[in-house]
Structures are given as C-alpha cells and as structure tokens.
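Now read these lines:
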Amino acid sequence: MERQWLVVLFVSLQCGVFSVACAESDSDNRNIGFGDSTRERVSTAREANAVFDAQRAFDMLERQCAFGPRPPGSVAHSETQDFLFRELQKYANNVVLQPHQYKTKTATLHLNNILAEFGPATGETLLLAAHWDTRPFADRDPKPENRDKPILGANDGASGVAVLLEIARVLKEHAPPRRVVIVLFDGEDYGRSIEDMFIGSRFFARNLGKWKPDYGILLDMIGDKDLALPIERYSWNANRGFAEAIWQRAATLGLTPFQSRLGDAILDDHVPLIEVGIPMVNIIDFTYPYWHTVEDTVDKCSPKSLEVVATLVISIIYDGL
C-alpha cells in the first residue's frame, strides 16, 4: 500500500476539521447494509463472537510467518498458498484458486487469488479481503543493507489473513444470514512502484463473475500491538455513509482503537474495487513503524488487536449496519 496526501477542501469548509462527527452521510450510501438488527441476529452475533478465538487467530499469523517471507515466485509463497487453501477448505462451502499471470520488466509472475464462499448461495454478498503475499524487499528499512531483503510480513499481510481464517471457522459453526465471500489477494506488495502492486485485486476487479459482492471490507495491517484505526480517506471519499456506519458500529461496541477521525488516503487493494463500483472500506493501521522493514515480525503483533477487528467484522456479518 502507498500513502497519498490529499487536501479535501470541501470537508474543511463544511466542518473546519476532518471529523466524522461533523459530516452528514451521503444519501446514496445511507442504505448500504442490512437495516435494523433483530434480537435473534444480535444473539447470533454474540454467539459467533464468542466462538472467535484470538489466540487461534494469532496462531494462524505465526503459521504463515513460519514459512518465511512469501513473495511471489518463492518456495514459501507456494507452501503458504497450499496451507491457506487447505485451511479454507475445512470451513467454506466452496474454495477455488483464481490463477493469473503478470509480466513485469524482468519476470512473469504466476499468481493465485484464493476465493471462498460461505452462507446462502444467492442474495446479498459481503466481501471480506486481505492480501497473503509479502514484499520482496524491505525498501523502508532504516538500514541500507536490509533494503533488498524480503520482509516477513507479520502485520503487513499475515494479520488480515489470520483474522479471516479464524472468521471462516466461525462461519462454519454459525452459518451467516447472508452470503460471505473471503478473498485472499496475491501480488499486493510486489513492485517498487504502484504499477506493479495490487496485482491480484486488479485482476479480481476485472473478473468478478459470480464472486461480485455488493460491498466489502479490506483488512490490512491490523495486528499491531499499538493499534490505531482512523477512517482511511479513499474509503470515506468513495463511500462516506458506509465508512461512517462501520466506525459508528465500532464505537457502539466500545472498540476504542477505531478512531472517529480521518486518516491518510492509502492506495491498497480496495481501490481497484472502488473503481469498478464496489463500495469498499479499508481497515488499516498505517502508523505502524515497521512497515516495509525487516522488523515486521510476529513480536510486533497482538492477539488482542486481531480480536478487536474480528469483533467488528463479526458484528457486521450477523447484524448488518
């Protein structure tokens, strides 16, 4: 993902600060979600949330990292793909690979998005996404001698995938009231420039087919021990009402890492889907000091952070917005 500094003048003129509290939801986005919750669905969400095991999710993070750095073309990349596919097969109605080739100036990459579906076969579809590859070089490392080394990607990649693997187990035990599609994108972090990044999500956005969601949530870098989650600005600009509803739900649930303010605009896997008309929100902590360094390791992450994000996502799956 890449940082983009934007000046959002209309917000400044209306509110004076980048504050969610001062903004009115766009009427076009206000109806995204499932309407009012019923007592039965609230109960189901609580039961499902009780099933989520934060330590097990953290174990999934550790197991990914045990393969080592996972850039496309590596042995670890292939081994991780097999592991993720087998894990999702335990819980999903259906799991498939979405293979695609991508030519860079120096290589041809053989990539696979991993797609899994849960719940009813038809009807409104919620997409939950993360990327499973890791960056081939630590270009942000403070030490020049490390900048050509691959990163382990404990937070930048493995954390979002870990939450979704554990949510997949929850969905098996508590069938969701709507169709849920989990997509693990490949090739998100490959290139030195954005032209060679977000490869899997760009391919998915061009080839939605039966996987086309009504809206979705991207999880990226959500395992940091010191978790801080402002509203990502591309998400808010494109789908203001949707983003505000998610952060309002987090406030209702008492999830304090979700901060009711605007953060940076981050180019990430949600943008290709926004560009083809899919409402997407990126949940991301971009204040992570170990981003794209060799220090993005397991010890920087926390089961509690994974649990915070999962609590919100589970609430949305079962209760809607």
About this structure: The radius of gyration is 18 Å. The chain is about 35% helix and 20% strand. The beta strands are 2-4, 94-103, 108-118, 125-131, 179-185, 215-220, 229-231, 258-262, 265-267, 280-284.
